[in-house]
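We recall that each integer encodes one residue's backbone shape. We quote one record:
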Amino acid sequence: MPRASLSPLLLRQGMLCGALLLFSLLCWGLYAKNQRQDMDRLLILTASQVQAGLETAGPVYLQHLPAVDLQVLWYGPEGLVVARSGPSPNPTLRPTRPQQGLIRALPWWMEHLPSLQKKPVLTEGATLRTLEVQGERWRSLTWSFAGQQVLEVRFPLMQMEQAQRVLLVVMLTLTLLMCVLMGVILQRTTRRVLAPLRDLTRTADRIARSRDLSQRVSSFPHQDELGDLSSTLNQMLDNLEWAVKAQRQFVAEASHELRTPITIVRGNLELLQRYPTMLPEQRDAILHDALLEMSRLGRLVEDLLTVAKKDAGLKLLLGQVHYSEVVVEAVRNAQKLKSEQHLSLIQDTDLWVKGDRDRLSQLLLILLDNALKYTPQGGHITVQVTGQAGWVTTVVQDTGVGMTPEEVRQVFERFFRAEHAREHNPTGSGLGLPIAHWIVEQHGGTVDVQSEVGKGTQVTFTLPMWTAGHANA
């Protein structure tokens, strides 16, 4: 799989090299075309100067032109050469009328390239041609004037075209060398970049095949994008490992908690089946125990469903709730559960919060039920509710068995139960406080637990107060 990822990179590298070669060729074409246009301007300018000189001094003017590659011929009405530049005739130039055979001046693709300067303007009667005379290419300008007289200015193309070919070879060679150098650098860079990615891929593949979430990808020494990627992946693996462990622990502990009441109910039913003639009071006691365990089982299943909703990311629908009424109802229901404990309520009147009424009632009953279970007879449970600065604060305080500081730090973990709590109530599930914590979080509040062994526990939670802003939201 990592090897296959090189193909797009190699393809892009080839496309880039091709684009560089095409760019070099186009640059050379622009240079060659504009150099040809410069030559045409030179021919036009020379023809104008020679025509003026011929009108002034006659054919003698051509004999005094400097000996350069540029050749000038003057044809008479009969088509014969009347005069030419230079001290002696050029054997490659025919003494007859100008050549008529034309060859292509520029390649077809070069003719369509844009010009970097204005195209040369020809005067009336002037014609530009590219000729081949005895195997040599010439650029020729013919100009008819003064009746049937013709002036021809020629320039050899051999040296210029040879220089252009050398320039083209040099440009293409340099471009190819640059492509090779770029390929080597890109290959080394790609290998260095892909090596960590291959390691990430192999590690991810091992994790997928073995389902071992304890493995981690290698950390990179540099704080770059790859370093951030490896850190993010390791953090994701940490979260996944924790989630899987929590799920396994949840399933194991839930199975354990469900097994106990099911076993008790099954045993009682087997007793009823095995001894159909048992005494009525014994039968009533067995049925009573079975009903108690079924009630416990129902509460446990309800708690497990609540935890499952929490794990599924369930969001509560919050609205305007008369919190003072909810607290009074919860305390009234808790009065039915108490056993010689003293339960008192102190609260501000007419407090409203933004929340879910049923969940808030469940929250208060969880805290009050725990306080009653772990507070001995004659103990005190106090509920105090105050509203201030946009928050409603509820404090549930008891004089029960209490917990150690280490147990307080674990009190919101699923199925966790303090040692003294197990002694006073062996049938608890350890899901009440985690559910209470979730309910408070869903309402945007905070919860805090303070406890001391032998002196009691205090649970404090805050809820956002209902305001006019909530009503308009």
Residues 319-472 form a domain with the Heat Shock Protein 90 fold (CATH 3.30.565.10). The chain has three domains: 3-167, 225-311, 319-472.
